[in-house]
Amino acid sequence: MVYGIGLLAAxxxxxxxxxxxxxxxxxxxxxxxxxxxxxxxxxTLALRRGENRRSTAGVWSLILNSVALIVVCLVLRNxxxxxxxxxxxxxxxxxxxLATRAGKPSEAMAEISTLARRWGASLAIGLFAVVxxxxxxxxxxxxxxxxxxxxxxxxxxxxxxHHFLPYWExxxxxxxxxxxxxxxxxxxxxxxxxxxxxGETESATRLPFWIWWLGVFAVAMVSACPSxxxxxxxxxxxxxxxxxxxxxxxxxxxxxxxxxxxPANPGVPDALYTLLLLSALYCLxxxxxxxxxxxxxxxxxxxxxxxxxxxxxxxxxLGWQPVSRxxxxxxxxxxxxxxxxxxxxxxxxxxxxxxxxGWRDTIRDEYIxxxxxxAGRLRSAALYAGxxxxxxxxxxxxxxxxxxWRRDASGELAWDRTxxxxxxxxLLIVLGSGYQNLHxxxxxxxxxxxxxxxxxxxxxxxxxxxxxxxxxxxxxxxVSVVLSWPASRPVFTLNRELGAVTTFRTDSYQEACGxxxxxxxxxxxxxxxxQIGRHTWVDYSQxxxxxxxxxxxxxxxxxxxxxxxxxxxxxxDGVKLYGRDEQIxxxxxxQRPPAGPDRCxxxxxxxxxVPSPICERPAAIVESREAxxxxx
Length: 632
Description:
By secondary structure, this protein is mainly alpha-helical. About 65% of the residues lie in helices and about 5% in strands. The chain has a four-stranded mixed beta sheet with strand order 3-4-6-5. Strands 1-2 form a two-stranded antiparallel sheet. β5 and β6 (about 575-580) form a beta hairpin.
């Protein structure tokens, strides 16, 4: 019944952030149930019918549904068109097919009852944490406008309605093509589907953040628990608190924009990558090496950290042997072939697309040069080591070393030591980089907590002592939440407001993005009081805009639309910004949004991004411009 109501809400609503609260909740719930929850559940039930992958059926269901979504979008894009109605129809057929494979209704309900008895209470705790976090941070997730990173995620997902690979500007060449800064493939397809169901809004683009982090909670929970027996709800409390902490970090501090962070990016890709990474490690624990390879291949189609993690995992597994060395070598060969095929496929596509030269320059600028830069490397490494401890609650980080100190004659700690070695190896890579950002640490943060909480299940200790690890982890994460709480929470909407009063006199998004570079000159001269990315400015200006109906600001490479418009600035490439409303011009020049140091608590101020200085233009210049307009 709930699924049916949700499906109906998802099919008839649009731009759900502007709907009344009840309708918006129904629309979001419907889309999540229809697109994510029901196919995953039916896929898990179908895969659990076989004994070989019964314990990892949930991981395989995520992989299967991701592949199915990409295929569905490919078929629809090249046939009837990728629209809401066509996606609803085909995805419903796919869900029904999965349901038929899940077994008889009585068998499926019995399996669901078994899963609910074991995991129901723990999952309810994680879901409660996500709901509370969405309520606490609703302004930043549902009202705040995009920054440049959020616009990128939004546009990459939208581009899949017309392209197979995410398509956006390759900034090193100034032309549009298949994106290469990160593959961003799997996450973009899921976001695209959610945009089709709920409308192309900020909310629909950010909603996957919470879906994937709930998945991270679930995989972390099963990874911390033994294979048999009922899950201990005590382990779920620190994991739920960690999800809340991740929401704080990605809502306020993780990113590259001085006035606000945006959970759409890097939050959404980081969350999905973390989910796939933990899934691969869980498959290794269950000795499902094919699942581990498939999950890491999916992770590599989200972020480039996937291949690096794969190499580290192979090296650690060869040393600690959670499975036999022969199996590790066989898995390494399979994984290498899989990643090589993916890489060759991308290279062929880039060659056919003409993007290959820009890809080479992008990889050099974004990764090689940033890693080897020598600016403040030692201080930065110490600082980000501290952030790693803060992000995992401090105390649980001890588990990365405890697993090596304990005696392990039976080999029970082989998986723990493999995972700890992998984590420490990647952490050293991050700390050794010349340029760092908090989002490099994000996928590593749940792992120490998982290893620490496994002590809750240590049957060699008395039951009363097993409370200790969970309570210590909870206390450490509570302190991290307090230290990470923002100093102020202004809701940033200036990018949306500027776009709403601007017309780019072209219906080409690509051409308008080229013109949008005039924003840099505007900010430098003091005619714009904050920095705005040109893609973001163009995107907000083209929503419900008509190039033939100019707004107070007009960007053009030609003459003014009428005599009431006055030239404000002309860029070096000849692009001009005209204005007709001096009140709006003064508004744009006087805005001074709080920057990083004003928003961040003291613990994050060392890495707070400070915007470039503004040329404070004298008020006389503005007044003379208005007098000139009146005289004419």
